[in-house]
Design goal:
heterodimer, A: 108 residues, mainly beta, six-stranded mixed sheet, 0% helix, globular, B: 114 residues, four-stranded antiparallel sheet
Amino acid sequence: RKEVEQDPGPFNVPEGATVAFNCTYSNSASQSFFWYRQDCRKEPKLLMSVYSSGNEDGRFTAQLNRASQYISLLIRDSKLSDSATYLCVVSRGYKLSFGAGTTVTGRA
Amino acid sequence: NAGVTQTPKFRVLKTGQSMTLLCAQDMNHEYMYWYRQDPGMGLRLIHYSVGEGTTAKGEVPDGYNVSRLKKQNFLLGLESAAPSQTSVYFCASSDPGQDYTEAFFGQGTRLTVV
């Protein structure tokens, strides 16, 4: 079983719509949680950290459910520029474990 | 504001050739990593280093070697390239001193082994 699993998508999202997707992780000892964004043929970049209480950054909301071991990302009022692959990342000490990514494709 | 710099950005190798990928970071980070990214697989850790002079194996270390002689540099070597090593390679660095550690990535090296 992969340590971090994500629905690969793609999610085809009209402009202005809301999209949400999850990832699950297998190691209950995981300490920190993140969403990274990766544009086509580019390096991953941090989108946001995920806190137990949930957190928002503009149109993006992340939630963590430690009991069920899943992390979610919600994007409101989607823009075409949100088209990317979103990587779920969990860490324990030095070790970062990456999901394979969820692809979001915006459409006008 | 360089961050993490990888060289080269592209390379084509013949089976059996060797090469070294260089990663340099200017953020004084302790941790450095080498990942490979293949379609549908996510990023997989090849080797990592928790400080100057130290290295350790990750998930997929076979066929690769690393060195970290200086804190700012992390080198990845392919001793005898194989077609299975065709991939995109990313170097990353992070600072263990913070609660929520952001990893910074280089722009990637696209390697094709023919």
